[in-house]
Amino acid sequence: MTTDQPRGTQPTSTTAAAEGPKGTLVLAGTPIGDLADAPPRLAAELERADVIAAEDTRRLRRLTQGLGVHTTGRVLSYFEGNESARTPELVEALAGGARVLLVTDAGMPSVSDPGYRLVAAAVEKDIKVTAVPGPSAVLTALAMSGLPVDRFCFEGFLPRKAGERLGRLREVEGERRTLVYFEAPHRLDDTLAAMAEVFGAERRAAVCRELTKTYEEVKRGGLGELAAWAAEGVRGEITVVVEGAPAAGPGDVDAEELVRRVQVREEAGERRKEAIAAVAAEAGVPKREVFDAVVAAKNAAQKVP
Predict the structure, then answer these.
(1) How far apart are CA 51 and CA 95, in angstroms?
(2) Whether the Cβ atoms of residue 135 and residue 212 lie closer than 8 Å to each other
(3) For 57-109, how does the pLDDT look when each residue is reduced to its tens digit (9 = 90+)?
(4) With contact defined as beta carbons under 8 Å apart, do 22 and 95 qualify?
(5) What's the burial of 6, exposed, middle or buried (CB within 10 Å: 0-12/13-18/19+)?
(6) 146 with 153: CB under 8 angstroms?
(7) Fewest CB within a 10 Å sphere: which of 12, 102, 146, 178?
(8) How many whole angstroms separate alpha carbon 253 and alpha carbon 289?
(9) pTM of the predicted model, to two decimals?
(10) Would you say 205 and 226 are in contact if contact means Cβ atoms under 8 Å apart?
(11) Which residues contact 258 (CB under 8 A, 6 or more apart)?
(12) Are 184 and 190 in contact (CB under 8 A)?
């Protein structure tokens, strides 16, 4: 026997799954080099997952084989090229009660790796997000750098184009916290040269290469020295740690430099008021001094025929 439904409505029997308990998104940290660094929970989560979203399914296979793990969940590729398109599918699985495990090639998902979009979408749907803590190239490089680690700022990858790269570096040239960057080996020499130009050739830094792997190396020195070293060619996974800017004393930064720093921040999207306050704080001078310098520069520019 069939039951007529009012036109324009959908059967209600298919909503049962949506009304059931929601699943869990698990962000799993994976080794950045040495497989023995795999967190103990990783193997259990790989075996338990209903769906495994992997940045590289071939690397996932090597990981599971190395850990002696047998997975039963559905394996999907989830990388930069398909992240936007695949996120709704994974959110749908989570909404239906699945336990979805996200793994990237190395380190923690969403930290300069795929994952942010999925985490944001899961949070928006009130889906539980948890993590299996694991190795981190950022923290490992910081700890080994020999530079201050009490306060730091992670900047990820710099832009590939030279002009954009310089602009990004100039945004943080007054940053007093230690800076951490990722970089591709074939761009390392250009990046270090740009850092030396903006931060100064003597600013201390450490290039951490192939962390936890067989050919691990940490090269420390001034940015100019490191740029010359990298020009000979460097291989492997690279993390660069750069010393923060020294505290500026009164009178250390002239008016022209104050104006230039404000302009850099304005070009990056900051409002003038916020830019002036930030430059004053990093230069260690009163906001009124920065404001007066900006006004004077503006007036001088208007007088030029």
Answers:
(1) 13
(2) yes
(3) 999 999 999 999 999 999 999 999 999 999 999 999 999 999 999 999 999 99
(4) yes
(5) exposed
(6) no
(7) 12
(8) 11
(9) 0.76
(10) yes
(11) 279, 283, 285, 289, 290, 293, 294
(12) no
